[in-house]
UniProtKB/TrEMBL annotation:
Belongs to the short-chain dehydrogenases/reductases (SDR) family. Pfam families: adh_short_C2. Residues 13-195 form the Ketoreductase domain. Keywords: Oxidoreductase. This is Oxidoreductase, short chain dehydrogenase/reductase family.
Length: 256
């Protein structure tokens, strides 16, 4: 993990990350701990080994809480447990998602509900669970991972892109509702980040070449690029930024 900048106000901050034990989420946990943050994260699979690794690396241990984020009572109880351990959560990173490929014609009601539950519903109820603590702490930052997939109008996962678009709408409404409490809510829309999962399932030389050709910057995206963006949004460096969608994709989509 490369430490490209130091955000002093994150030292000692209580941070909660969904899906923080693998993929981009693991890099987020690592990067936030490198800033001195007290990180709690949930992961459906056992992330004990990862927590051990982080403890050896940083000298402190992240609080790992095993949780399927579609189980809303469990998710919210984990946020309470994190608050009890580290103080009120002042940075929430809704990172966990599932972009399982599917066609419109094969989607049934059960799949639709599952996709919304993991990609949108859990985000809302995690936000709901941290609001009171952030308000009492005098403010906070919520970062909702979205994707450029819906901006591009990508086919191949319509339920996922629908949820991505919904995340942006939710982000704007919550930013407006809780701005008076100094709670900032922003979305982060990555491009094609080359995680191990992406490389195993979908990256081919031809597909990658075609995608990079669409980027303004002719380089591939790494998890570190998302870490740097999250640190900025979590920190008071971005204190007057809320209700926005920060796109980090090498310049595939152009916003504004």
């Amino acid at each position: 993990m490369t430490k490209t900048a130091t955000f002093h106000d994150l030292d000692g901050a209580s941070v909660f990350v969904t899906g923080g034990g693998s993929g981009i989420g693991a890099s987020l946990t690592d990067g936030l701990m490198a800033q001195g943050a007290k990180v709690a994260f949930v992961q459906r699979s056992d992330a004990t080994d990862f927590a051990d690794e982080m403890e050896q690396k940083h000298g402190t241990r992240p609080l790992f809480l095993q949780c399927d984020i579609t189980d809303i009572p469990r998710l919210q109880s984990c946020i309470k447990e994190a608050s009890d351990a580290h103080g009120p959560v002042t940075v929430l990173v809704n990172n966990a998602a599932n972009d399982k490929r599917h066609s419109t014609e094969e989607v049934d009601e059960a799949f639709w509900d599952w996709s919304m539950a993991i990609n949108l519903k859990a985000y809302f109820f995690a936000c709901q669970a941290v609001i009171d603590g952030m308000r009492k702490a005098g403010g906070g930052s919520i970062i909702n991972f979205s994707s450029i997939s819906y901006m591009m109008g990508n086919a191949g996962y319509p339920a996922y892109t629908t949820a991505n678009s919904g995340i942006n709408g939710m982000t704007r409404s919550l930013a407006r509702e809780f701005g008076p409490d100094k709670i900032r809510v922003n979305a982060l829309a990555p491009g094609w980040v080359l995680t191990d999962k992406q490389k195993e399932l979908w990256v081919t030389p031809e597909a990658l070449e075609a995608h990079v050709a669409r980027q303004c910057l002719k380089d591939t995206l790494a998890p570190q690029d998302m870490v740097d963006a999250v640190l900025f949004l979590a920190s008071n460096t971005s204190r007057m930024m809320t209700g926005q969608a920060l796109v980090v994709d090498g310049g595939v989509v152009v916003t504004g």
